[in-house]
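Lay summary

Proteins are chains of building blocks that fold into shapes. Our project writes down both the chain and a compact code for its shape. Here are two examples, one after the other.
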Amino acid sequence: MAFGIKRDELKHWKKEVEAGNIAFLTHYWADDRFPQMNTVTKVGCRDVDKLKQWGKKHGLKPKWIHEDEKYPHFDLIGSFEEDILKAEGKLDQLRRFKSVEK
């Protein structure tokens, strides 16, 4: 279950993904499989090859891509989420939802 984002933020993410850009969307998240995690960052791009190359740069495996027809994406959680957002200069997205070092 996702929550904590505005409709405009989701629309913007979808538009960026559809345009073939690497797009980031962080939100609160609850999943019984990962009770210690409370946020997830979706990193999407309609160009799956571009998304695979982006993921490779961060040690992500292509098999981890959610092959959604319109919005293929990686779900980043835990240390992957924080480390990758830091490397990409996007920690501000995570800071909205939890305390993270600069």
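And here is the second example, written the same way.
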Amino acid sequence: MKSIYSLAKVKGLAILLIGFIFSQSALAQTKTLTLKDAIQYALENKADAKKAKLQVENSEYQIQEVRSRALPQISADGNLTHNPILQLNALPGDFFGSPGTTVLAPLGQKWSATGGVTLTQNIFDQAVFTGLKAARSTREFYQINQQLTEEQVIERVANNYYQVFVKRQKLAVVDSNYVNTSKVKDVIKGQFDNGLAKKIDLDRITVKLYNINTQRQQLINEVQLQENSLKFYMGMPIQTSIYIPQTEFAVSPQAISETPDATQRTDYLLLKKQEELLDYQKKSVIAEYYPKLSLVGSYNYIGQGPEMPLFAKSRDQVYWSDYSTIGLNLKVPIFTGFGTRAKVRQADVEIRQLKEDMIEKKLSLDLDFENSKTQINNSIITINDQKENVRLAQEVLSDTKNNYYNGLASLTDLLDAENSLVEAQNNYTSALLDYKLAEIQLIKAKGELRTLIN
């Protein structure tokens, strides 16, 4: 019997050793992830952040496109025309020595080819000037939008980061509860083997172990799902193993005495810049009332004859000549059927709608700050209460264990004490999560989300 026990003990040690080796190997491949690391990784790899940077880059090309309308436009064109049947024109017979008669004579040649270069330069176009100003404002709009997108990425990553931490904490509580309950089971098993405990007590503690293990498996699944969500919001490969240090979850004081200026929040500044763009849009429509003046010049070369001019010579009766033109084009709008006026009024309505959005946004930002401040204060109170509650629950469990082992308490009392401790620990962890989520919202309300990576 003793040799069998020794063999089992050796096997157990071997399993523990193998598990330790595998755990060390897995740990070596695990990426330690602080909140700052997670946010920095997301800003460099998440698709939303990358797309926001590309929009800023694209705004430079939009400026170049609008600027091109103020620069000379040069084009080359050519055409080749064949006239199988020449048009007959009724001409006075005097040209052909037959006064008083009308002669039908063809004009032109069977073939003609033309090639030339045309230059157009806007001299005055109010829409172009307005477009240049709007393009520069568009670049600023996308720069602010990039900043807002990065703040949104930071917020999502921070929220999911702390949720992963809390679920892991709850899993640690369940693991600790399982270990403690297993020890109690071993004691009851020994008492039962010696005839000092009832079988129903052993069965009850065994059932509880099964329930704890089931709860543990559910939490393992929840942790994995939450980790996958975090890695998704970071733009990290889902297969990557991550580890979140314990030190990352501390309750730190926040300055919440003064209400921040909501008009300096990125959300509000983006609407402000959008209002500026809508104003330029309105001005570009008004520009349709202005005259437009442009310079046009062209130089052309033409060949005509009875043969295809491209490869023919003068001996084939094909003749080439050049000609050029220079002129000014002036376009003065007089009446557009009130279409321009309607477009101006539509643009004005869009501006007024945006102003209402700005008022609503400011109220929303102020509301977020007040709510997060209230949540912070409530969470601090709850954290302190639950911290004390955990301490008391641990004392109660310790006393109940001693009483149970000495026959002064029932198994029901012991199980209730264990449940109370687990509940207190989970409540404390949930209170920490509520605090950290409220802290993120408070930092966001103050426009300081980027301080999380400083």
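What can we say about the second shape? The domain at 32-71+126-289+338-453 is CATH 1.20.1600.10 (Outer membrane efflux proteins (OEP)).
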